[in-house]
Amino acid sequence: MCLAYAAKVVSVSDTVAMVFTGENQQRVTLLALEGDPPVPGDWVLVLSGLALRKLTEEERHEYLTP
Length: 66
Hints:
Blueprint: E1 5-13, E2 16-20, E3 25-29, E4 43-47, E5 50-55, H1 57-64
Antiparallel strand pairs: 1-2, 1-4, 2-3, 4-5
């Protein structure tokens, strides 16, 4: 079973972003994203170190609510 989670973008460098998950920071690749790249403050959906897509404010709350 795979689990995707919401993470807040802290910084972006080319195709890699540093994100904060609420517990720790990690690097994720942005190669799977379509459209405009995220900027610090955006939220992304992450799975196995890969940012799948940017999240809207409503979606972010859905992923963060247990």
